Write the structure tokens for this entry.
Amino acid sequence: MIRYALSCKAGHAFEGWFRGLEDFDRQKADGLLSCPFCGGPEVDKALMAPAVSTARSKEARAEKLAASARQTAGAEAAEVASAPAPVPAIAAPRGPEQAALVEKLRALRAELTANAENVGAAFPEEARKIHYGEAEARGIYGAASREDIGELLEEGIAVMPLPVLPEDRN
């Protein structure tokens, strides 16, 4: 997949993901591209810096991942020892609609985890390996810090949180 910086005739900047240059050209020729802001059909590639993955950047990511794992482990231990357990953010009284919603979330989470591999704290690293073709493509889930998730999203790696259920905090 290739990420292109795009812009419309009105000057709106946005990005798009394509299988390759030919895919972008075909979609443009077929009139399938439009600006998500104004709907304008005149979309072109904008100037962008290439994303280059080097051995040095991989080493830096690995070091950052290890430091983050150490920090997360230490923070979690301190949290468990000193802070009360957080609770789900559902403030409304529990009625039949909310109970049905929680059951749907429970079923969604069960489906997601049943069809994926739990990689634990190695989630960010394993997601990168899959994204860059260094590991077998498969569904995974695990733990990651907000910072790690932000970095994965910046790299164009699609991730999402698992639904948090009331029993997760008890």
Notes: The first strand starts at residue 2 and ends at 8.
